[in-house]
Structures are given as C-alpha cells and as structure tokens.
Design a protein that fits this description.
The chain is built from 9 helices and 14 strands. With about 325 residues, it is α/β, with parallel strands linked by helices. The protein folds into 2 domains: about 160 residues, Rossmann fold, CATH 3.40.50; about 140 residues, Dihydrodipicolinate Reductase, domain 2, CATH 3.30.360.10.
C-alpha cells in the first residue's frame, strides 16, 4: 500500500526530496508544487507521472493524503496550517517556523486535528546519530556531561542565516539526548551572523557548545558527547558509518585517552530513512520521532539565541528579512 503524497518546493533541497519520494516504495507522488517555472521543468523531468502545479492549493485537490514542504523557512508556518486544515498529514523541513508563536500555532492545530505532524530534523534519522542517542539512553557513556558540535561548510546557502539553517540540526540532537530546557544561553557571532557559536546550559546540568558556519575554510560535521565513563565521537565527513568510543584514563584536559573503539553502524541514507518513517507514521497513525512539539522547542531555542545576538548588535534574523 502506498501513500499519495504532494511535494511543495523543488529547490535544491526539494529536488533531493523529490528523488527520494520517487524511489520510495511507500510513496505515490501525485503532485509537485513549485512557483519557479524553471524548477517546475526540473520536477516534470524527474517525476513525469506527477502533476506539476504552482501552488499547494492546486496540489490539495489532486488526491494527496500527505504533504512534504521544502520551501523557504518564512513560508513554512502558513503552508503547514493550510495543509493541516485541508486534512493532510505534514512533513515540513526545518525550522518548523521562524517564530515561537507560529511554531506553537502549528503544533496546537496539528494536535487538535489529529494529524501526523513531523519536522525534518534530518540528523535524527542518521544511522550513527540514532546509535549515539541510543547509547546515551542505555547508559553506555555513564552520566552525560557535555556535547560539542561543529557544523562548518565551505560554501553554504547564505539566503538563510547560519543560526536558522544549521542550528536546528544540533539543537534537535541535544534535545534527543536531554530535554532542551535551557537555564542559560550564550551566543557570539561574526559581523554578518556567520560564524555562530552557541553555549547552552540546561536545567539538568548538561552543557553544549555548538559552532555553526557556512563560510569556513574546511567542511566539518562533528559531534562529541562526553560522559562520566566514556566519550563518543561522530565524524560525519570522514567516517559517517561509525562512532569512536574512548574510555579512561583521563588526560589533563578532562578527555579520555588511549585507543578508540570503533562501533560500525549499518548505513542508510538519512533522507530515505526520514521519508520512510514519515510515511509509516501516516499509514499507522503514529506520532513521529521528530514531532511538531520538538520543532517548537528548537524554534524557541533559536529565538532565544537570536535575541542574545541582537543584544550584541548582531541579529541573524529571518523575520528581519520580511517574514
């Protein structure tokens, strides 16, 4: 049994989703909505059996049960609400919205209507991240104390501030490890909002340092989780299919030394896993791993970081661009 799906947005990221939806045995892609004529031609070439239209409203009448939204972040909330009100289940790319109020509105509407409502926090579907989260919850690292994450790109999409385009990834991982109840937050940024460094202290005592940039000299995607009995590291650029685990004794800087244990993780494309999970939830009427509630928590954290940066004269805001 397949789920009739509409895709809204066929830009660079939407084209990736288009490919995965066309390949998925669970999906029947019935429509692609895209405002750009050139991008509609791309969609027509890659999905010849789907109706190619200009708007979500046109796609709604073509028999879809679910919609995947991959448009610029400023449009997310309004498209989500339109889709929910039309009776569709929704997967929306991160961030859920660009304000806490809109994120909460989407979350409450989805709950009141009984829709499957999922945010595309893609790294939550990365096999090695899944294993890392499971290891933490199983106690394999002891009591977790600290997370350090670097998400640095050589050439990234500069149409969205680094805080909002890259920040949701690592904030969603922090939330998966420990509920994202922030006691204090520090944020620093370059003069144009890139790079951004966030320092979080959670109510539980867990701390996180997150570095984000789309204009770095090298590409780096690294997560290190420090626990009382072990340190786990994931290097998504050099070894995406394994976790490196180090144990005592401690070095002078507080990290563990000695040879690292390699934990191999069976690989699957995260986006394919994400789409499969969403469609399974639609079929089974189950809550997704990354529900709107999580998306709203992440948006609140992003908004808090944005306010802190604004106090220092740097405001990498999506809303400042007109949303």
């Amino acid at each position: 049994m397949t789920v009739p799906v509409a895709l809204v947005g066929c830009g660079a990221w939407g084209e990736n989703l288009l490919r995965v939806l066309c390949e998925s045995p669970r999906a029947e892609l019935v429509a692609v909505a895209e405002t750009s004529a050139a991008r509609r031609e791309v969609a027509r070439a890659k999905a010849p059996s789907a109706a190619i239209v200009e708007s979500l409203e046109e796609a709604i009448g073509l028999g879809a049960r679910a919609v995947v939204i991959a448009t610029p972040p400023r449009s997310h909330a309004s498209l989500v609400l339109t889709a929910l009100d039309a009776g569709l289940d929704v997967l929306v790319e991160k961030p859920l919205a660009v304000s806490a109020a809109d994120a909460e509105r989407c979350t409450l509407r989805a709950a009141s209507l009984g829709r499957v409502a999922m945010v595309g926090h893609l790294l939550r579907y990365h096999p090695a991240v899944e294993r890392l989260v499971a290891m933490v919850h199983d106690g394999a690292l002891g009591t977790i104390r600290h997370l350090a994450a670097s998400r640095l790109s050589i050439r990234g999409d500069r149409s969205v501030p680094a805080l909002w385009s890259l920040g949701p990834h690592d904030l969603s991982i922090v939330h998966a490890l420990e509920p994202l109840r922030i006691e204090s937050l520090e944020a620093t940024s370059g003069p144009e909002g890139d790079p951004v460094v966030l320092g979080l202290q959670l109510v539980s005592g867990f701390a996180a340092r997150i570095e984000l940039s789309r204009v770095h000299a090298t590409k780096e995607r690294r997560i290190v989780v420090v626990g009382s009995s072990a340190v786990a590291m994931l290097d998504d650029v050099r070894a995406p299919d394994r976790i490196f685990l180090s144990r005592p004794p401690l070095r002078s800087d507080g990290l563990f030394e000695g040879p690292a244990e390699e934990i191999r993780v069976p690989w699957r494309e995260p986006m394919a896993a994400e789409i499969d999970h969403f469609l399974h939830c639609v079929e089974e009427r189950r809550a997704p791993r990354t529900p709107f509630e999580e998306g709203a928590v992440v948006v609140r954290a992003l908004g808090q970081a944005e306010r802190v940066l604004g106090e220092t004269g740097v405001r990498p805001s999506l809303r400042a661009e007109g949303s």
